[in-house]
Amino acid sequence: MTPEFDELQTALIGGNHVRTAEMTQSFVTSGATPQDILEKGLLPAMQVVGRRFRDGEVFLPEVLVAARAMKSAMAVLEPLLAAAKYQSKGKVVLGTVKGDVHDIGKNLVGVMLRGAGFEVVDIGTGCAAEKFVDAVRKHQPHVLGLSALLTTTMTYMKTVIDTLRSSGMDVPVIVGGAPVNAEFAQQIGAAGTARTAGDAVELVHRLIPQA
Q1: What are 35-63's pLDDT values in tens digits?
Q2: How far, in Å, CA of 92 to CA of 172, rounded?
Q3: Separation of alpha carbons 34 and 107, rounded Å
């Protein structure tokens, strides 16, 4: 972590959203750039949370409160970043496939991606192939992420990928969920899969060369 931002990072990692927002505003007031606050303060702290989650040192509740703290900081920074035309590392569209309403894993991946500096568009659960196609057409993401928790719905991922390809869209597609493995991902033409949210972030980094 960066010494200058130690206290801010400690607040975020600990999930203290009020203190995180206050300190973010304090840094803005004192003249720190929004980019430095984000890239030297907030993102490294979220990376610590992600690493600890991956290693089993913290669990989902801790990740979610850290995500809330991150959100409180971004509420301060986003207008400033927009005015400065700050460029994210890339854009990812996420959704759970048709017939499946589970979203904890998808939401966690979204949290970790945002914490790593990516822009995330979450189109929700129970999404038909056409909804994914419309989202890709509208948002022009660098990567599309499909989620399914059930063995009965994971097969629909192939329908989504086939529909994308028949529509002329070649966006890389990553897939995830409890029943999904690397062999299945390869069979349906996905660009890859990840066992954990942290692994998903690493996979997206690999798929977006400039990230």
Answers
A1: 899 889 998 998 898 889 888 999 888 98
A2: 10
A3: 25
